[in-house]
Design goal:
- The structure holds two protein chains of two kinds.
- By secondary structure, chain A is α+β, with helices and mostly antiparallel strands.
- Chain A folds into three domains: about 110 residues, Acyl-CoA dehydrogenase/oxidase, N-terminal domain (Butyryl-Coa Dehydrogenase, subunit A, domain 1, Orthogonal Bundle); about 110 residues, Beta Barrel (Butyryl-CoA Dehydrogenase, subunit A, domain 2), CATH 2.40.110; about 150 residues, Butyryl-CoA Dehydrogenase, subunit A, domain 3.
- Chain A has ten helices and ten strands.
- In chain A, a hairpin with a 2-residue loop joins strand 2 and strand 3.
- Chain A is globular, with a radius of gyration of 21 Å.
- Chain B has a domain of about 90 residues.
- Chain B has four helices and three strands; from the N terminus they run H-H-E-H-H-E-E.
- In chain B, strand 2 and strand 3 form a beta hairpin.
- In chain B, helix 3 packs antiparallel against helix 4.
- The chains are: A alpha+beta, B mainly alpha.
- At the A-B interface, helix 1 of A face strand 2 of B.
Chain lengths: ~375, ~140
């Protein structure tokens, strides 16, 4: 087992770190307060190749491995988890799925600009009544000639407002239930397709989440991804990879919380000495570091399994569960160490907690991750 | 005078070795994808700008770039930047922008901080860093 990163992986980590600190950090707090989408930052990330990291160079991507992607995600989310999720959706949910299962037409027309960062993608699976129970899709797509007529509502769509291309799950055959779900690629501006207003969220406020409405929306039949009825499989396979991205995002938040806590503990004085000298604080820091490190190893393992084309369903669910738990716990403890200062906006730790909570919810709640893990254990 | 000469000599010897990583020890592979693929040797227009620009570039590509190899640590490379600069502005302004960038990027004492492109590992320094694209 080799725990060393390659020179290339180190280079990507360093670039992401430099970029995040110089370009993302200065506006992070303001964007969080105003709920403003980081247009310029996303554009620059695209130019540097961070928006299509795992796409092969043939389609304009960087052709990197999942481990490099995880490292970059950690560094970016450490500074701003909102930018992290924008990047994660485009990388692991949209471009990865399109490259794996898309037709040549879809790859040439949509994957290339997505991988180059010229366009932004979104992934629409959740519905008002279908979140964890993704099989219960009410969005319908009926085939009429060369088109699919899509009707329905999608909820909680990350990049919902700013994306150019949307991967939408819809029922093409209601009788077959989840075996009748198909994945379609919908372009922004298609007639009958509308975005509702941006949600006012607790955390990751800088990313734009909104619901989408399809009202007799005409989507060309050639925009079907994989095959008709394979939509659910497509979504599950894509989400498996997505979980690694979200785990990395959670790791970023946890790492930022730990660093902030250490820095504060070394400067703040109580009872005549720095609080870092008190065991009560030291034990907290030790627990945080241990949780972070163990979640990191799980995430790296899942990424490395994916790179080696082995089954990583269980491992990615474990990584996401552990990392999101670590993120929330580390952020909470960081606030506790900061005391009253941690509770006010002047210090960043309160944002870390708000951002951390979502990692336990999206791309499969922690409960769903436990289900996935348990099922793969019982199948063996 | 001797001291200055000595400094110049040491600088030239030391910097190409340790400065940019791409110039350091690397596996040499002459099959690497080259910039030359995107080179445009044709003369489309007959304008003064076009003639001077293309003449200078083709000479540079033929006599320097091809012999030197594809080892520029920046993307776009200086010659590609020159084309972008002239296309975005005009010949005179473009040339000034080119010299501005050339001086910055080759300054070993106070270089600007650049980010590496994920794919190639090269430093990204596009025309957008110097002029606002899409201006009136």
């Amino acid at each position: 087992m080799n725990f060393q990163f390659t020179e290339e992986q180190e280079m990507i980590r360093q670039t992401a770190k430099d970029f995040a600190e110089a370009e993302i950090a200065p506006s992070a707090t303001e964007r969080d307060i105003n709920g403003e989408f980081p247009v310029e930052i996303v554009k620059k990330l695209g130019e540097l190749g961070f928006m299509g990291m795992m796409v092969s160079p043939e389609y304009g991507g960087a052709g990197m491995d999942t481990l490099s992607y995880v490292l970059a995600m950690i560094e970016i989310s450490k500074v701003d988890a909102s930018v992290g999720v924008i990047m994660s959706v485009n990388n692991s949910l949209v471009t990865w799925g399109l490259e794996q299962f898309g037709s040549d037409h879809l790859k040439d027309k949509y994957l290339v600009p997505l991988a180059q960062g010229l366009k932004l993608g979104a992934f629409a699976l959740s519905e008002p009544e279908a979140g964890s129970d993704a099989t219960n899709q009410n969005t319908m797509a009926e085939k009429e000639g060369d088109y699919y007529i899509v009707n329905g509502i999608k909820n909680w769509i990350t990049n919902g407002k700013m994306a150019d291309y949307y991967i939408v799950m819809a029922q093409t055959d209601k009788v077959k239930r989840h075996k009748g779900i198909s994945a379609l690629l919908v372009e922004k501006g298609t007639e009958g397709f509308e975005q509702a207003k941006k949600e006012d969220k607790l955390g990751i406020r800088s990313s734009d989440t909104c619901s989408l409405t399809f009202n007799n929306c005409k989507v060309p039949a050639e925009n079907l991804i994989w095959e008709e009825g394979k939509g659910f499989n497509f979504a599950m396979k894509t989400l498996n990879g997505g979980r690694i991205g979200i785990a990395a995002q959670a790791l970023g938040i946890a790492e930022a919380s730990l660093e902030a806590a250490i820095k504060y503990a070394k400067t703040r004085k109580a009872f005549g000495t720095e609080i870092a000298n008190h065991q009560a604080i030291q034990f907290k820091l030790a627990d945080m570091a241990m949780e972070l490190e163990s979640a990191k190893l799980l995430t790296f393992r899942a990424a490395s399994l994916k790179d080696n084309h082995l089954d990583y369903t269980k491992e990615s669910a474990m990584a996401k569960l552990a990392a999101s738990k670590a993120a929330v716990h580390c952020a909470l403890e960081a606030i506790q160490i900061h005391g009253g200062y941690g509770y006010v906006r002047e210090y960043l730790v309160e944002r870390y907690l708000r951002d951390a909570k979502i990692t336990e919810i999206y791309e499969g709640t922690s409960e769903i991750q436990r289900l996935v893990i348990a099922r793969s254990l019982l199948v063996q | 005078m001797r001291i200055i000469l000595l400094i110049v000599l040491i600088q030239t010897i030391a910097h190409p070795q340790v400065d940019w990583e791409r110039w350091g020890k690397k596996e040499i592979d002459y099959r690497k994808e080259s910039f030359s693929k995107s080179r445009d040797y044709s003369f489309d227009g007959l304008g003064v700008t076009e003639t001077i620009l293309k003449g200078a570039l083709i000479s540079y590509w033929t006599f320097f770039s091809d012999i030197d190899g594809d080892n520029c640590p920046f993307e776009p490379s200086c010659s590609a930047f020159f084309i972008d600069a002239v296309k975005t502005t005009n010949l005179i302004e473009g040339a000034l922008l080119f010299f501005d960038r050339f001086a910055r990027d080759t300054n070993p004492f106070n270089r600007r901080k650049y980010y590496r492109i994920v794919k190639s590992g090269r430093f990204y320094d596009p025309i957008g860093n110097y002029v606002k694209i899409g201006r009136d």
